[in-house]
Design brief:
Oligomer: single chain
Shape: elongated
Radius of gyration: 38 Å
CATH architecture of the largest domain: 2-Layer Sandwich
Structural class: alpha+beta
Number of domains: 6
Helix content: 25-40%
């Protein structure tokens, strides 16, 4: 952000304060100063001159030999600008001058003719060429007629005798996009009085009864008819904008830009000659032409249901403010930040645009009506004759609770200081806070924060502000104490460590991934049904707007990048915390582990048959997981797990399952949908696994509490096992089937294990699914034969048909 000393001087007298002192103050206040440019010291040995005579250069028609009176003498200067005229006053860089663009002026021979100086343009004097008009870029700059020839202060007459500070604003201090609030910070620092913003008090503010849109947080409109504005001297307003790196437009556009700079609140102006029903709404369709475009759900300005402007960036020409415009409408507004950010990205708008920058930042819009009153004041200052048609508070901003309760004793504890209560109160008053209640006994303090300081929420924030006011150099230097001791590992850490070792032993690669993602893609692999994401107020870009719901998209991106380098077989995993903001959630932070197998699980070439299929399939991944579940929870735990097929756009519906224990979903196996795999250039056999370890640890803890140590003798005879598949109603779960089988008290059945739950389109249409389980039979007295096992299987089949109307496969 670029700050001009001249604009700060409207509210705080900084004329006698040196630039370096202001830079030091800004750095101390937490605003990092990147660069300081004083145009009066970076441009040396300048003088006011007047062109007396012009001759064509004898060897070039594009060059002119100018005779310039600089007071004490007349100098000959060769100039190639097309706008040189006899009688104009100009800025002359004398021999020995050094300009802001680092050009050093010397006697110079040009095509055989000596030139003794240079007539300057605005860009040569230090203004950014991007904020200059074509006319200003093409030629030299004229000085006003009252500039005395020979004056050594030509920049004063151009309003360029100024200093510019380039500073970095932290995201939490976007309130200082308003120059007034930055001046307020400096007034506290230098203990100087702060002038109030001059506005026109307009008492007849109407309140709209129109229906409100949720995405409009605040909106005020001012409509005026122009009676006569004649010739306006807008030189200072144009120069102020240029000094702050903003390109001037029409006078009324510039007026709005100045007010946005001053108060930080977004505002726009449109020609209102034919504007009868001004509204802000969401577009219901796409409209794309060269001159005007918007997309469906873009925030647009409309007139009688006709859209005419897309966030004031793309606007129909009928609503441009022109010299012949007779009516204007000014709008001061605050909109939903998420929608604005999405729209800027969708339309490829420049986010550094003055209006969009303020619309996009988390500024509390308390000034939305004050902006319009400030515009009225400036219109009067420029002697513009007008009449107010309407001043309407269209959407009243609902102020949130701006009081905070903290324990002020924590401030001393965090800073290592012994500040008195009075000193802490004084520091808080300095930043605009008001202490409503305080108690020395309890240490409790209730604070009312300024409406523009939305970054003050807890004791840490207030501690930082107190430190800033007191001065970091005045805080005691306390060396931190480190106590090194071995902390016992938690159950979560132990379980994760074992799983990671298990994966590493099988050749997986561990990776770390970024936890922010695009809000629009959150649902793609949201297998655990998270609902409300945690979002950033001011993300770096829209691709990093929200905290993710799954680790899998990041792993797939790693696989895609490796595949682009011909690494076709890859196994990667990561474990990280998934955060959510679900109001009904028990846990808002769940530790997940996820892995992806692309192409070949074992990554071993079959030398006898190179064209053989890769070793990667649903049963292999399921068995790989089952082995680890058995190791950690025992065979009974693994046998109790149920696998439920599910459908989602990103996965293969018949090769994906949610894994549950006692109906608690804690893990998912899924095959990536072949079309998506092809789109990101992966193999058609990509399997994904994601486990909620926070949930799994809780399950194991519950199992441990219920566990009773039992001893049983082992049979010395070989068991016989058979698989049984049945088709039953999809309303019947495996748990129901298992309970019925065990309740039958069969003589030889020892173990019952679910192998698969399957459902295709035909079964889904019939509202049925197929269960396949393994039955293990044995006896402690004798070796079983096929006949006795077959009898028990027939009994179980009959039981399934009677109880569940099952179809035996």
């Amino acid at each position: 952000m670029v700050v001009s000393k001249r604009i700060l001087n409207q509210w705080i007298d900084v004329r006698k304060i040196k630039d370096q002192e202001i830079a030091k103050a800004l750095n101390s206040l937490g605003f990092e100063v990147d660069k300081v440019v004083n145009l009066t010291t970076t441009n040396t040995n300048l003088i006011v001159g007047e062109i007396l005579k012009i001759e064509e250069h004898p060897k070039s028609k594009k060059l002119n030999l100018c005779y310039v009176n600089i007071g004490r003498k007349i100098v000959k200067i060769i100039c190639g600008a097309s706008n040189v005229r006899v009688g104009i006053k100009v800025v002359v860089a004398q021999v020995g001058s050094k300009l802001a663009n680092d050009l050093v002026i010397d006697h110079r021979e040009i095509l055989g003719v000596m030139s003794h100086g240079m007539i300057c343009s605005l860009s040569e004097l230090g203004l950014n060429p991007e904020v200059l008009s074509e006319e200003e870029l093409a030629g030299i700059v004229y000085l006003p007629d009252d500039a005395p020839v020979g004056s050594l202060s030509p920049l004063h007459y151009l309003e360029l005798d100024d200093s510019i500070f380039e500073i970095q604003l932290t995201l939490n201090r976007s309130d200082c996009l308003a120059m007034y609030y930055l001046a307020k910070e400096l007034s506290h620092y230098f203990k100087l009085p702060l002038k109030k913003i001059a506005v026109s008090n307009f008492s007849n503010i109407q309140t709209s009864k129109q229906s409100k849109h949720e995405f409009i947080h605040a909106l005020g409109t001012l409509k005026i008819n122009l009676l006569n504005h004649g010739q306006i001297d807008e030189s200072w307003i144009k120069r102020t904008l240029q000094l702050t790196n903003i390109k001037p437009k029409s006078f009324f556009d510039n007026l709005v830009s100045i007010v946005m700079l001053e108060l930080g609140q977004p505002a726009v102006v449109f020609a209102a000659d034919n504007l009868e029903d001004f509204k802000i709404t969401l577009a219901n369709k796409d409209y794309l032409t060269k001159s005007f475009q918007f997309f469906k759900n873009d925030i647009v300005f409309s007139n009688k249901e006709q859209y005419f402007s897309n966030l004031a960036v793309s606007t129909l020409s009928d609503y441009f403010v022109e010299p012949k415009t007779k009516a204007l409408v000014f709008a001061s507004l605050n909109l939903d930040g998420d929608l604005v950010q999405d729209q800027i990205k969708r339309n490829s708008f420049n986010p550094s645009n003055l209006f969009l920058q303020r619309l996009n930042k988390p500024i509390v819009p308390v000034n939305y009506l004050l902006v319009l009153q400030r515009i009225l004041f400036l219109l009067h200052q420029f002697h513009i004759k007008f009449e107010v048609v309407s001043f309407v508070n269209e959407v009243n901003y609902q102020l949130k609770d701006n009081s905070r309760t903290i324990n002020y004793q924590m401030i001393n504890k965090l800073l290592g200081t012994n500040l008195s209560l009075a000193e802490i109160v004084s520091a808080l008053n300095t930043i605009g806070c008001k202490v409503l209640k305080k108690s020395k006994l309890s240490g409790i303090m209730k604070i009312k924060i300024p409406s523009y300081r939305n970054d003050l929420n807890n004791v840490n924030d207030f501690t930082e502000e107190v430190a800033r006011v007191v001065g970091y150099n005045n805080l005691p230097k306390i060396k931190p104490k480190f106590v090194i001791r071995a902390e016992p590992l938690s159950n979560l850490q132990i379980l994760l460590a074992d799983m990671k070792k298990y994966l590493l032993d099988y050749g997986f690669h561990q990776v770390k991934t970024y936890n922010l993602t695009n809000k629009d893609t959150l649902a793609d692999f949201n297998f655990f049904g998270y609902k409300k994401p945690i979002t950033l107020i001011a993300p770096i870009n829209l691709a990093r707007k929200a905290m993710r719901f799954s680790l899998l998209p990041s792993l797939l991106e790693i696989c895609r990048l490796n595949a682009s380098f011909k690494q076709d077989s890859l196994k990667v995993f990561t474990d990280e915390v998934i955060y959510n903001n679900d109001p009904e959630a028990v846990e808002h932070a769940n530790h997940h582990l996820a892995f992806v197998v692309n192409n070949d699980f074992f990554d071993v070439q079959n030398y006898f048959n190179p064209n053989s299929e890769k070793s990667n399939n649903y049963l292999l991944i399921k068995g790989f997981l089952a082995a680890w579940f058995t190791k950690q929870g025992g065979k009974e735990f693994n046998d109790a797990l149920t696998y439920h097929s599910f459908d989602q756009e990103t996965i293969h519906p018949y090769l994906s399952s949610k894994i549950k224990y006692n109906n608690i979903h804690f893990a998912t196996i899924a095959a990536l949908h072949p079309e998506i795999a092809e789109r990101i250039a992966l193999s058609k056999q990509v399997f994904l696994v994601e486990i909620n370890f926070t949930e799994l640890v809780a399950i194991f803890a519950e199992l441990k509490d219920k566990q009773v140590v039992k001893y049983k003798s082992w049979s010395k005879f070989n068991p016989l096992s058979r698989d049984l598949s049945i088709i039953i109603s999809s309303n019947v779960e495996y748990e129901d089937v298992k309970n019925v089988i065990w309740a039958a008290r069969t003589k030889y059945l020892q173990n019952l294990t679910l192998i698969d739950i399957y459902s295709d389109e035909v079964l889904k249409h019939k509202k049925k699914h197929s269960l396949t389980f393994n039955l293990e039979f044995n006896s402690k007295k004798e070796q079983l034969d096929e006949d006795r096992v077959s009898q028990e299987i027939k009994m179980i089949q009959s039981l399934m048909q009677q109880r569940f109307n099952a179809e035996i496969r």
